Amino acid sequence: MTHLRIAxxxxxxxxxxxxxxxxxAWRYRYDRFGFTTRSSQLHESRLLRVGGPLFHYALLxxxxxxxxxxxxxxxxxxxxxxxxxxxxxxxLSVGGLAGLAAVAGLAVLLYRRLRVSAVRAGTSxxxxxxxxxxxxxxxxxxxxxxxxxxxxxxxxxxxxxxxRSLFALDPDVDAMGHAPFAYQLHALxxxxxxxxxxxxxxxxxxxxxxxxxxxxxxxxxxxxxxLYRPAAASGSGxxxxxxxxxxTGGPGGRRWRRTxxxxxxxxxxxxxxx
Amino acid sequence: MPRGTSSGNGTSPSHGRPPARRVMAQIAMVMxxxxxxxxxxxxxxxxxxxxxxxxTEYAWFNNVETRPGQGYPRGYEDQERWKGGWRLxxxxxxxxxxxxxxxxxxxxxNPELPALGDYYEPWTYDYANLTAxxxxxxxxxxxxxxxxxxxxxxxxxxxxxxxxLGGGPEHLAADPVLxxxxxxxxxxxxxxxxxxxxxxxxxxxNPSCVAVCPSGALYKRIEDGIVLVDQxxxxxxxxxxxxxxxxxxxxNHRTGKAEKCTMCYPRIEAGEPTVCxxxxxxxxxxxxVILYDPDQVGEAARVPDEKDLYEAQLGCFLxxxxxxxxxxxxxSGVPHDWxxxxxxxxxxxxxxxxxVALPLHPEYRTLPMVWYVPPLSPIVDSLTRGGHDxxxxxxxxxxxxxxxxxxxxxxxxxxxxxxxxxxxxxxRLAAMRAHMRRVNLGDxxxxxxxxxxxxxxxxxxxxxxLLALAKYEERYVIPTSYTGTLPPDTIDDGCSLDGDGGPxxxxxxxxxxxxxxxxxxxxxxxxxxxxxxxxxxxxxxxxxxxxxxAFHAPPVAGPGAPGFPDTPDASAxxxxxxxxxxxxxxxxxxRGLFPRRPETEx
Lengths: 274, 602
Known about the structure:
The complex is a heterodimer. Chain A has helices spanning 2-30, 46-71, 74-79, 84-115, 117-121, 125-147, 159-167, 173-177, 181-196, 224-227, 229-234, 263-266; strands at 220-221, 255-257, 269-271. Chain A is mostly helical. Chain A folds into 2 domains: 2-210, Transmembrane di-heme cytochromes, Chain C (Fumarate Reductase Cytochrome B subunit); 212-271, no CATH class. In chain A, helix 1 runs parallel beside helix 9 (181-196) and helix 2 packs antiparallel against helix 4 (84-115). Chain B has 27 helices and 14 strands. In chain B, the strands form 6 sheets. In chain B, strands 12-1-14-13 form a 4-stranded mixed sheet. The longest helix of chain B is centred in the C-terminal third of the chain and has 23 residues, at 419-441. The model of chain B is unreliable at 1-16 and 489-571 (pLDDT under 50). The interface between A and B is large, with 80 and 111 residues.
C-alpha cells in the first residue's frame, strides 16, 4: 500500500509534469501548425454561442478557485481573518456554482458535437479521449466539493499541503494518501488530463492571446524573416537586420517587438501604422 | 490606430529641407469592369491553385458576383449584421466588431461569424450509384452528398447561385446595396442593368482583419503590402473572418486556420502577375506598384465624412515622378527598380492620372487597394436599346447624367454614395469612346471632347491604349523582390538554408516542403502548413489520405527519409548518432532513437 501511495502521489505527478512540459515543447517545435482551437463554429453557431462561453468562463473561475485553494495556505487566510467556515462556505458556493456551470456548458457542447453531423464529422481521435476525461474530472471535482457539505475533511490541510510539497521536491505522500476517495480520483483524473494535454486540442489553452490587449492594431512584418529564419534560429538570435528597410522607425512609427517568443521570431517588427 | 500620428507633416510642401518622410510600396490591382464578361476563369484558376483542398471547398479567394445581387457570402455588405471594417468612435478608429476588450471577451464564440450556409454547403455527387445501383426499371441517378459530413444533402445554394440575375427579384431583394436605394429605382434597375464584379482580397492599407486578429497571425508585408496569414501563428479564433468587411478571409474547417487571398505572392515576388490576372480572358486586370505615405494612412481612414474617403485615400498616394518622393523612397529602403516600376505603374495611372479607377466600398475605412474602373456599358446599352447612337458624345454625356439609376448604384459601391467621382470617371470613359471613334473613322478630332473631361488628347489616347489594347507588359508592371543585397548572416555562414530546421536539412522524402520554402524563400511558412498537411506522402512514406490530426512536416527529416541523422549539434561523443527526441515525429523507430547496444549483445 505504501508503495502504491508513493507511486501515485510521489512519482506520478513528476512523470505527468515531465510529459506535459516535454510534450508541449515537442509539439510546439514540431507541430506549431497544429496549435489551434480547431473551431467548429462555421458548422453550428447557435449552441456554441451558449455552450462555449459558459464552459470556458466557468472553467476559468474553477481554475482560479484551484489556484486559491491549492496555493494559498490556510495559515495565510487565517491571518487575514477569513475563518475556515467562511472560506469553505465561499468555496462551496462560488466553486460549486462555477463547477456546475462548467458541466452545463460542457453538456451543451457535447450535445452539439454528437447531434450536429458536421461537427461530429470534424471530431478527432484525441477529442474522443479528451471529452470523456473532461467530464470525469469535472464530475469528480464536483463530487469532492459536494462532500464538504457533510464531510468535515479540510482539503487545505491535506490535498493542498501535498500539492505544495510537490513543488518543494519533497512530496508529502501521506497528506494525499489520507484524503477521501473523491479527491484522490479527481487528482488522478486531473493528472491524466495534464498528460494528455500536449497531444490534444487542449494546447490551445497555452496560446491565449493576452498580448492582443497591448498590441497596436496593425501588424507589419518584413518578408525577410522568412528568408533567413533558419540561420537566425540556429544562431544566437536577433542577429538579422530587423524589420526590413522601411520599418525601422521614423516619424509617427512606433516599434513593437515580441521578445518573449524566442529568437526565431524576435526580429519580426510590428508597427503602428499611424 | 488612434495614437501616434505625426502631425500631418507628410503633406506639407517641402521648403528647403524636406521633412523626413516614410514611403512604402504596395502592389495594387485595378479591374476594368467594362471588360468583364463573367466567365469565372479567374475564380476557377484561383481555386485550382489555392483552395482545392479539404476544408476550403467553400472558399473562393477570387469570386465573380453579378451586380445587382447578393454577393458571396450572401449579403456580406450588410455591416450592421456582419460588423466588418472600422467605424469612427469619437474621432478614433475602432473595428466595427469592437475594440480589444470586446474581442477578447468574445473569444469563446464569435457572435458575428458567417455560417457555412451563408457561403454555401459544398457538395459532390454519389457517382458510384450510377454503376453500383441494382438492376431496376429506373435509370440510376447520382444523388448529391455534402462534402462536409458526407450525408445526403439538398442543394439550395451554391457558388454564383444568382449569376446573371438568376432567381430574379426574389434574390435581388437581398442585395444590401439596393436596399439603400428607393423602391422605384430598385425595380427599374433590376430590369435595366447588370454587370459583373470580380473580387479578391483588397490588401488594404488599413486592414481590419489584421487589427482584430488576437494572435497577431495576420500581417501586412512591409515590402509589397500583401496581407498574409502566418499559418503557424494562427490559432483559429476566427475574428478576422468577421473583421474583414469584404469577407475575404476564410476559415479552413479541417485545419482550423484562417486562409485568404495571397495575391499569389510567390508569383509576385518573381515578377509575375497573379493567377487570376494571368488567366483573365477579358484582360481586365492591372497590377502595379503604388507608393504611399504610411503616416497618412491613419488620418485618411478617419476623415469624418464617408464621402471624403476616396479623396483622402488618393491623398496617401505619392507621386513617384516627384524627386523628393523618389529620394524619400530610396531613404526608406524602397528598391530603385520599385520606384521606376511605380512610375510605369498602370494602376497608378488609372487611379491618380486618369482618375477612372475607384475603390470598392471606401466607407469601410480599410483603404482598399484593389480598385475598379466603373462600367460604362450599361449606359451605352441602354442608349442603344432606346434607339440612340450609344457612341455619340452628346447623347452619351447626357445619358450619364440622366440615367441616375446605375450612377447611384455604382456610387453606393465605389464612393460611399457620392455620384460625383463615378460620373467623372464615366464621362472620361465616354470621352475616350467618342474621341477614338473619330480617330478610327478618320474624322477630324475635337479637342473639346478631351478638354471637357480634363484630359489632353494624348492622355486620352494613352488611356485608350492601356484600357482597350491592354498589352500584357503594360498591364502588369511588377518588380521582382530580389534586392541585390545579401543578408549579413549568409556571408560568413555559407548557405543560409543549412541552419537548424532549414530546407537544407531535409532529406529527399520531404522534398515538397523543402522546395516550397527554398523556391519562394519569402514565404514565411505562410502556406507551408497546408503543404505539410495535404502535400501527401510526407516523410516520403507515402501514407494515404492525411487525417484531420495530420502533423506538420517535420523540422528535420523523419524516419522515412534516407540518410538520417548525424546532426552536427549532437557532436558530443555519447550522443553521436542519436536522435534528438524533439525532432522525432512519433512514427516508427528511426536510427538513433535508442542507445546503441554493446556489440556483444548483437
